[in-house]
């Protein structure tokens, strides 16, 4: 193996390990965990994953619209 290839492999390995620092682990955790039973529980749970607030509007045909909210009003 040439010296140039060895240096390139080391640089790529270091860059890969360094990029792990910038992964949004909170969002990956939120994506992997099972969803709560209701929409309001999901909205409340989103605050535990680092979101400041969330508003959800659900409009189903033939039913009145539903609103869900959680978070800070003026953080």
TrEMBL record:
Keyword Membrane annotated: yes
Full protein name: Serine hydrolase
Parts of the chain that traverse the membrane: 7-28
Species of origin: Lacimicrobium alkaliphilum
Keywords for the protein's UniProt record, in alphabetical order: Membrane, Transmembrane, Transmembrane helix
């Amino acid at each position: 193996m040439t010296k140039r290839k060895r240096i390139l492999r080391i640089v790529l390995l270091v860059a890969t390990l360094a990029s792990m620092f910038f992964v949004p682990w909170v969002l990956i955790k939120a994506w992997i965990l099972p969803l709560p039973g209701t929409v309001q529980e999901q909205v409340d749970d989103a605050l535990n994953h680092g979101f400041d607030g969330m508003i959800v509007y659900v409009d189903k045909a033939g039913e009145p619209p539903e609103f869900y909210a959680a978070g800070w009003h003026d953080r």
